[in-house]
Amino acid sequence: MGPRSSSPVSPRHAVVCGSSMAGLLTAGLLARHFERVTLVERDGLVDSSQPRKGVPQGPHTHVLLQRGLDIATSIFPGLQEELRSAGAQVMDMSADCAWHVAGAWRKRIPSGVTLYSQTRPLLEWRVRAMVRALPNVRILDRREVAGLLHDETGTRVTGLRLRAPGGTEEMPLAADLVVDASGRGSRMPDWLEDLGLSRVEETRMQIDVGYATRLYRTPTGFDAGWKMLMLSPELPRLRRFGAILPIEGNRWTVTLCGWLKDYPPTDDAGFLAYARALAQPHLYEALKNAEPLGPISSHRLPHSQWRHYERLPRMPEGLIVVGDAFCSFNPIYGQGMTSAALQVELLGECLRKGLGGLSRRYFARAGRVLKMPWAMSTTEDLRLPELGDSRPFGSAFLHWYGERFQRLTATDAEAVQTFMEVMHMLKPPEAILSPRLLWKVLTGRSEGTEPPPGPEPLSARLSSRAA
Ligand SMILES: Cc1cc2nc3c(=O)[nH]c(=O)nc-3n(C[C@H](O)[C@H](O)[C@H](O)COP(=O)(O)OP(=O)(O)OC[C@H]3O[C@@H](n4cnc5c(N)ncnc54)[C@H](O)[C@@H]3O)c2cc1C
């Protein structure tokens, strides 16, 4: 058994461990329900847009899906204006994006699905500024959570044990509610075992994904007919992805990514060579004469992981887990921050009935919230035969259908619109199986006949201009 809380529980005090996106959204929500909220963060936090040690994925392209942005905006009204004035680029996910997928360029339509594009540190910094402005939230940085405080029976969590990073002296912090938002490396499974609970089950999918990201100055007068470029893989044949997104400061964030240890190199020549081997030449063409700004950052993620807290026979009361600490996805599908936002939204719904029984209510529903994004990303990853022989029932049909559906998006506006809304979690994945879309996929009939030609490679545009 770990130590017990010696100080009396302070009334209406919530403590959040970890001040990355999941922790910040949680603190913003809890500020409406608790007298006081304390956000505990191991890193030192500065008042600027900078990558930091505790968020090593920070230098990489981060897409905040519209559902996540909507939830974040409901917690922090004014967030979108805040991001725009900090330089975020606002785009229509379809009309502004040249996207090559399943062997064709997706049809581009005004979809109304909006992407705010900025660096991850900028997003976190502006949300953190909004948290700091809340009068009842205190951010305690340079403090590490070392474990839980709990009651005599171990059935209720009553706070956290804190220490300075690297230090040994511990300080108790009492709370009515503790939220773990400490990311993939969360030690909660160990702490729950210390409380006498069984080990939380974990589902892992070995993906061995590697990222390499570099910032570039947007070339003066650049006009290739797109603001954002996405070159999707064609799993299992082509296992590489590349994207260019415009961000604050008249820059591009350029990310290359590969599955199963097909890691993109981090030297200049290797990075360009990898870009050249993508499904289309457009990304390479755009990069080869662009000015890089700084080094190439890399990140490797061996597996997606879902810690099934929802399956534990009991969770202690007064304890919630959100974000990557609960479920951490293959980042390529851009779901992490939005899934965290969905969990925070669920927490808000569960809090409407008060604190009594909160953990039970939350974990009873959290599994269903995670199921949808987990199924969307793992279904795609399971196209790789190396991931083993066993597949969930229906996978073969979903792979067959999914590929044909993606091809349909080359010519059919309804398919494009539905895809964008599903991807951005505004509609459930079943929407792509509506009777009309099913009919179009099965019969091969769509609104258009010929797929759009797609953007010309830059070299072709330049030579035709010169001629
Ligand atoms: C390469 C890459 C690209 C990604 N791209 C996208 C994307 O495009 N879109 C998207 O939505 N998501 C993306 N993600 C996922 C996204 O980064 C996370 O889902 C998101 O940051 C939410 O995570 P989190 O807040 O739960 O945890 P984290 O971001 O991991 O943050 C955990 C926080 O807890 C702190 N902490 C940890 N332990 C302690 C402790 N003991 N005491 C105190 N503090 C502690 C850390 O310092 C950190 O601040 C990507 C991830 C990777 C790896």
Describe this structure in words.
The protein is an alpha/beta fold. Among the domains are: 10-62 and 120-201 and 308-377, FAD/NAD(P)-binding domain (3-Layer(bba) Sandwich); 206-302, Alpha-Beta Plaits (2-Layer Sandwich), CATH 3.30.70. It is 31% helix and 23% strand. The strands form 4 sheets. An 8-stranded mixed sheet has the order 5-4-13-14-15-12-16-18, sandwiched between helices. The protein has a 5-stranded parallel sheet with strand order 7-2-1-11-17. A 3-stranded antiparallel sheet has the order 8-9-10, with no helix packed on it. Helix 1 packs parallel to helix 8 (336-351), helix 8 (336-351) runs antiparallel to helix 9 and helix 10 (395-408) packs across helix 12. Mean pLDDT is 94; it is low at 1-10. Flavin-adenine dinucleotide binds at residues 17-23, 40-43, 54-55, 57, 60, 62-64, 144-145, 181-184, 211, 299, 301, 323-325, 331, 334-338, 340.
Please give a handful of descriptors for the protein shown.
single chain; eight-stranded mixed beta sheet; globular; FAD/NAD(P)-binding domain; binds flavin-adenine dinucleotide; Alpha-Beta Plaits; 13 helices
Secondary structure elements and pairings:
Layout: E1 13-17, H1 21-30, E2 36-40, H2 66-75, H3 79-85, E3 89-92, E4 97-101, E5 104-105, E6 114-117, H4 120-132, E7 137-140, E8 144-150, E9 157-163, E10 171-174, E11 177-180, H5 188-194, E12 202-217, E13 228-231, E14 240-247, E15 251-258, H6 268-276, H7 282-288, E16 291-307, E17 319-321, E18 327-328, H8 336-351, H9 358-381, H10 395-408, H11 413-423, H12 435-443, H13 458-466
Parallel strand pairs: 1-2, 1-11, 2-7, 4-13, 11-17
Antiparallel strand pairs: 3-6, 4-5, 8-9, 9-10, 12-15, 12-16, 13-14, 14-15, 16-18
Helix pairs in contact: 1-4, 1-8, 2-8, 6-7, 8-9, 10-12
Bound molecules: flavin-adenine dinucleotide.
Flavin-adenine dinucleotide (FAD) is lined by residues 17-23, 40-43, 54-55, 57, 60, 62-64, 144-145, 181-184, 211, 299, 301, 323-325, 331, 334-338, 340.
